[in-house]
Structure formats: structure tokens, C-alpha cells
Amino acid sequence: MSTAAIPGNTQSNLRTAWLFGILWNLISTPLLFIIPGELERNHLAAIGFLFPVIGVGLLTWAVMTTLRWHRFGASRFEMGQATLGGQLSGTIHTRFNDVQSLRVTLKLTCLDRITRSSGENRDTRENILWREEYVVPEGQIGLGGMGASIPVRFAIPADARATTAVGRSDGIVWVLAAEANLPGVDFKEDFDVPVRRGESTGRVEPTRSDAFPPAREPISSADLAASGIHIAPTHEGTQYYFAAARNASFGSGITMFTLLWTGALWLQYTLDFPRIFIAIMAGFELLLVVVVLDSWFGTTTVTIGSDAVHRRHAILGVGSTRVIPRSSIKGLDLNISMQSTGRTGTPYYELRATLDTGRRTHLGQGIRNKRHAEWLAERMRSDIGL
């Protein structure tokens, strides 16, 4: 195999999925016998059932990963080049029986991997710094005796950060992911790709010029309205309204996590943990409840007038308004303000205004679609006069 052939991560994920799933279930299963007796004294004890439920979900994840491995085998990425200010190119080889009407989504992500240690506990997070994605054009995926060949080409920004992490160490990591919805088990694979500065990282494969990402359809106000973002003229100026519950998947995830946190808090209370630990947990509980309420019921209204920008954020109608003079806004760019868990998670963008004082403030956030965020940023710059 060529030194530029990068194996997919499914095999290593398979081991992790089974190990974590089995350990979680060994720890959480006894709760099924403890909780029924506690329900007579405290109905909140029912929250404890969430832990065995999550255990079932983890085992399901392990089974699905196993089925995916058996169906698609050991996928690999034959990398051509990957340089800052240049491009990532190459071909993904995997096992497909048919490529008719197959839609494969490719994602290239730059991550900052950070590990925090506290005693024997280690928590590793991979924060998304940049992402681009596109659907491979119809007819570009080849099928031969060795399986399917999926062409890859991404432009890489010159101001991005080069790979610094080695193995599982901290640092900058670049990940190429491929996904396709199929009958039965979906195709999902990701590859760690080394991106360097100003030099090729492998042999350059010849690729067709039409393998570049396809031209994108223009964004319209109707597209934004379908995602819960509405633009309308008012007597005060152009109004941008970011509706509540625009990101149901994120809201569901943070709600589930908050319920788990509540269950852990209840267990600490019933097991007579030191009150200081319970107080700290309760403080985080209040913060999580606010985030949950904001994800489901929070709205933002930004009105760009002739002299000032008014931004109002409210939860269930309760909120405050900030007035920002237009002349004080010196720039407007995109920033990833939050993300769902994992390297292939979803980044959510905010429109971040830079003021003449150097401080920054958002003019809308929680935007799931990067193209929508880019379109909004350009429209707002025009309205503000940047």
C-alpha cells in the first residue's frame, strides 16, 4: 500500500464502541434493581432510568458500527496532496455494490484537540475550527473490481492551521469524512489527513477537472425562512429574526444531557455526598436549564437602521435590547460558537461584529448551515455599510 494510503477510522471506533458500551452497561444495569425501591420515596428517582437507556443506545451504536464494518470493509483514502493555500485531493476507495443515484457528502474539518487532566480523569475534546462540505456530483463516483472510487477535492484556506498532532496527542487535526444514506446501514467513514504548509504530502493523482466541487445554487430569503431565519423591511430598518427551536437536534441533545446531569445530582443527594459537591453540581444544573430554555424558546431580533443596530435576545419573551451605533461596527465575520459532540459533529455559526473598541458581539447565532451564515454576513455588511 502506498505511503499516501490512509485507512479509515471505523475499525478503531469499533473497538471503542464495544468497550465503552459494555463498561457503561455493567455500571448502569444495577440501577434497574435499585430505582424501583426508591420511587416510593422520591419520584425523581425515575430519572435514573436514563442511564440504562443510554446503555442500550451505546450497544446499538456498537452493533451499527459492526454492521457498517462488515458491509463496507476497510475503506482507505489515497491522498494526492494536502497543503495550506492549496487543496486536498485524492480518492476514497470503499466497497459499494452500486453507485447509481448515490449521493456521497464529503466534509473536510480542521479540529483543535485539547486534553484536560484532573487527577486520574482525562477529558479530550476536539473543537471545530473550520469546515467545508459538498455533495459529489452525479457520475463522478466510479465502480470497478476493487469497489467504488470517490474523488475528493477541497480548497484549503491559506490562513488555516497545519497539522500538529501526532497520533492521539493534542494539537491541530484535519479530518476528511464521507457519508451516504443507503438502504439498511448508512455509509460513514472518516480519515485523519495530514495537512502541511507549502509542500505535497503524497503522490499527486491525476483527477478530472469536473471533479471539483459543483457550483452552488444561490441562497434566497425563502431558504433562510425554511430554516427559521426571517428577513423583512420595517419602518426602523431591515429586520433579521432568528426564531425559537431552530436547531431541534442540538436542543434534544442538550436536553438529554441536562436530564442525565439531573439524575447524577439526584444520586449524589440520595447517597449523602458532601454538600459542597452538590452545591457545585446544582450551580451547573441552573446553567444547563438556561441553555435548554434558550435552545427551545430563545429568539433574537436584529434591526439594522440608518444610525444604529438594535439587537434583542429573549427567552419566552423576557430579554433585553442592545443598541450599537453603526459607525462603531468595523467588521463582521463568522465564528463557530458551539458544536455538537465529536469530530463529525455539527458546527453552529454566529455573526460576530467587531467594534471600534476591539470588543466583539454577535448579531445572530446558532446558524447551522454555513452557506446561510455566509449569505447573512454579506447581506448584513451591505446593510451596515461595511
Structural features, described:
There is one protein chain. This protein has about 375 residues and is of the alpha+beta class. Helices cover about 30% and strands about 35% of the residues. The strands form four sheets. The chain has a five-stranded antiparallel sheet with strand order 1-2-3-7-6, with no helix packed on it. Strands 10-11-12-13-14 form a five-stranded antiparallel sheet. A four-stranded antiparallel sheet has the order 5-4-8-9, with no helix packed on it. Helix 1 runs antiparallel to helix 3 and helix 5 (about 250-270) runs antiparallel to helix 6 (about 275-295). It is globular.
What profile does the largest beta sheet have? 5 strands, antiparallel
* Approximate helicity band: 25-40%
Question: How many H/I helices?
Answer: 7
CATH architecture descriptor text of the largest domain = Sandwich
Radius of gyration: 24 Å
Category by helix and strand content: alpha+beta
What spatial form do the alpha-carbon principal axes imply?
globular
Unreliable stretches (pLDDT < 50, length at least 5) are 200-209
Query: What oligomeric state is this?
Result: single chain
CATH hierarchy, class of the largest domain: Mainly Beta
Domain tally? 2
> What string, H for helix and E for strand, traces the elements in order?
EHHHEEEEEEEEHEEHHEEEEEEH
- Strand order within the widest beta sheet: 1-2-3-7-6
Total beta strands: 17
